[in-house]
Amino acid sequence: MSSLQPSPADTSSQRWAWWPLLPLYPYGRRPTLMRELVPNRVWCFEQLHGVWYVAVPIRMSVVKVDGGLMLYSPLAATEEVIRGIHALENAHGPVLSIVLATSSGLEHKLPVPALCRAFPRAALWVSDRQWSFPLQLPSSWLGFPADRTKILFRDGLPHPDQLSWIPLGPINLGLGTFNEVACLDHDSGSLLVTDALVSISSDPPPIFALDPTPLLFHSRQNGSERLTDTPSNRLNGWKRIVLFANFFKPVSVQVTSLHQSIGHMFGPFCRNRRSHFGFYPFQWSEDWEAEFDSLFSSGRCVQPDLMLSPVLERLVFPRHKEMFISWLRELSNYHDIKSLISCHYHAPMRITSIQLDAYAESLTGRDWARSEKSWTTLASIDQFLLRLGIVPPQA
What we know:
By secondary structure, the protein is α+β, with helices and mostly antiparallel strands. It has eleven helices and 17 strands.
């Protein structure tokens, strides 16, 4: 596996002018890490995105197909990203297709227009039932090129001789629809998914080597502490970010009072924008690492684990367990699967069809869409949306 990293001084090529449409960290500057995942066959481009330093990787995969390249799950098309794709085109042929495989992931939709403009000869394939909020607008009004946009399955499938496409959904979310399509590249055994499966590791993903600030920010006990770069702090910061990203408010963290938070803002090491001037209103309990370990099937993260993120389980699939399990069973019918490449967290993860089937079997016997402990905040959001009638009680 190889990677391409920009020069520290080369920041102008990392600018992303459209960030105000979805103002997530790192805002208008999006450093990108390019990695080769399967030699001469599969690559990925990775950036960070998140809220208030709760940042996780977001990933676009590039697959070599007959005559050129396919881009799966668009990424912010900075000059740095475009240059990297052009380098792949010089070696492997032009970009033939761009695939938006989700109907609901805004962070994957927003980069579509810019990426399509950068590659004007590529066909755009999108999952069915695309939607926008607060107004349902035609896709062309959202920047999708009308003359080359095709709907997966309805208008055919891209590169069907090399790739299999496995749909999950649709699920009625009230305001819109969840609909995602996984892609299997048979030659490499790479299973590409957007959000429906993730692989979480106890180690920070390599994208944080470009800037470990989010890890160091969340590794502290209070805002007066210096952002100190050590392996231990990077590890602790990553585990806490994972808890925030999956549960919103983990049970092992308490929000401190405003008076207490302000009291930590006068330390000598926090008077800078990087540390948010010492404002860190969180206090972690002594057993917080046990909560991180509880995310994993073995009760302890000894290697990357396969999972549906708690956010999706509790807010997208709370009443659709059987649909998700059936999708896993369908995936397990493809015996040439060798690795999972998700758009978030760790990738690639070595998996087999047997593991996918075993994961499906494990879900049949455990509680689904729980409401206690760390799941409390997610459950309260789901119940609130149900009471308002925004989310339907059934499909």
